[in-house]
User: What shape does this take?
Amino acid sequence: MVNYIWLFFIVGGILFSLFNGNIDDVTNALFNSADEAVNLSIGLISIMSFWLGIMKIIEKSGLIRVINKILTPIAKFLFPDVPKDHPAMNAILMNMSANLLGMGNAATPFGIKAMQNLQELNDKKDRATDSMCTFLAINTSSITLIPTTVLGIRAAAGSQEPTEIVGTTLIATLCSAIAAISADKVARKFSK
Assistant: This one.
């Protein structure tokens, strides 16, 4: 469906510019946008490499275990159906840690692994369990303490103060996390 919407906008824009005699502006905009996209992508490579390296250092130094220990009581509260020593719990904790540090790309493999492990605990394979729904709600709410990816994009786009969004991001992610967890808990009560 999204592809059809994009096709409608692109074809509609080209036809509109043809009728108004502005096709040169469309051509210039196409090439300028492609140029900006390449520059932005190359700028992001260095930032992503830096933060993925930091994540590796955090993992190797053992700091990730400390973060996991801090998050364990929260994870037990959110996922009471998942046994403490099950691989799903470890994948959930790693995913939450990476998301808290704003490393969405590093969190994705842990999120996929967590869902696979949660599916192993699922008795009805064609339906999502409560824990799977909770995990999805938390990931969708995007809990982030340090929005490193957004900071990187803002820096690569030439922002004068890329870190000025940290405070508002904290408030926004806190509100979204509370809303997601509350909605999940309410939905759990009504589904039983």
Notes: The two ends are 34 Å apart (CA to CA). The longest helix spans residues 23-61. Helices lie at 2-20, 23-61, 63-78, 87-100, 104-120, 130-141, 148-156, 166-191.
